Amino acid sequence: MNQLNQQTSDEVVEVINPGGAGSVVLVCEHASPFIPPEFNNLGLDADALNSHAAWDPGALAVARIMATELDAVLVASRVSRLVYDCNRPPEAAGAMPAQSEIFAIPGNADVSLAERTDRTASYYKPFRAAVAKAISARPDGTLVTIHSFTPVYHGKRRDVEIGILHDSDTRLADAMLESAAEHSVHNVQRNAPYGPEDGVTHTLKEHGLRNMRPNVMIEVRNDLLLDQQSQQQIALELSGWVAAAVAQLEKATSCSD
Q: pTM to 2 decimals?
């Protein structure tokens, strides 16, 4: 069996290629639109359930290909971010959002403290534990999270095609942006379409900064991920940037020792 097909999973988190020999830990917080039946679709219609509000279309497909290319472990949520957004801490309103862009989320309009506690225990804590385990198993590991974003947000077209996001540790992002400037035909921008001020770097802070690991969040506009061929092309491009950036950081570290 191909190593990538060896995976462990339960109802809320999936660990793909757990024995990956590479130093990169891939994370996909918004991999699935699945809402457990007991939530009654959070009161949403089909348009909302299939939209970017419920998940990051194409992100998991890209992350899976990158896991193959980088021989990386991949940790992915199996539950919609509308049930619990694993890229938000429990105290954040956005962990169980009552509004996501143009979509009101009726099932999150009046979540009690008890229900917040239950969702945190059921969905966030297992995910956080799986990421922490993957990071701790790789003492020299690098954290890379994979996301996609909608081309039109609140009626405004976004020109950025690929975003390289970081919090206070810019090392990996700087190196990746160098590779992108040299090789990419895409519109690649730093901390776009979101940045730390938007509260999107929780995973980077929780598992990267806290453990002093190089870290970066990658955002790809989802109209670039509409089919397998485009997903493959983007994934190979991103894998090349990550591999080059990791090698650059490792070289810099060895030269300073």
A: 0.93
